[in-house]
Amino acid sequence: MALLDGAALFLDFDGTLIELAETPDSITVSADLPRLLERLRDQLHGRLALVSGRALSDLDRYLSISGIPFSGSHGLELRLGDGTLVPLHAPRGLDEVRERVRRFAADRGGLLVEDKPAGVALHFRLSPDAANSAIDFMERLARESDLVVQHGNMVAELRPAGADKGDAVRALMTEEPFKGARPVFVGDDLTDEHAFAAVADMGGAGVLVGPLRETAALYRLPSVAGVAEWLTECA
Description:
This protein is an alpha/beta fold. It has helices at 33-43, 56-62, 94-106, 131-145, 165-172, 193-201, 224-234; strands at 7-11, 48-51, 70-72, 77-79, 85-86, 112-116, 119-123, 148-152, 155-159, 182-187, 205-209, 219-221. The chain has two domains: 2-85 and 163-234, Rossmann fold; 94-159, Alpha-Beta Plaits (2-Layer Sandwich). The protein is built from seven helices and twelve strands. The mean pLDDT is 94.
């Protein structure tokens, strides 16, 4: 609990607040989660935000909470606590890229394509044997389309360069009521390492969720259940 004294708290969603599932649409969100987040928001005097790889529209399907900033698409989307949206511009040629990814997935079983506002993700959790070929395809397509590959937990995503979860945290830390607080980021995935590094640069700390691995985070919680227990105690 002492870690959050005077802190600004940034939370990942999948694998941190909710258990990972075989597909993005098959997750289960606890009915208690919105109230817990509201209590944390009040306890931290508004210094709470969610920073996710999901699109904002997707997050809104599962969480309807006012007064909490949401960042989606790995930092490419940002909505402030008052509802103000930071403009997002999709890269040129994205429709063609999405179509090529869909064709690739259609020729192989178990691959799932997820459209993002400024990119496209290819999930291979249901077909782990296809991981290498899927990653190779996405990396080749990235080189051809001037996009970058964001690697995650059993997923590869094509997206524009120049924004990540760390950038979302940095942007929010320039806004009230986050300004001047010590940032703490809680996340589980490789995509959260940008945020761990960002909060460390600002004198804060990262909290890794899950098994031990090489990380920029200073602390660790063992599981999603461990996160829920810790946050409940803090709230």
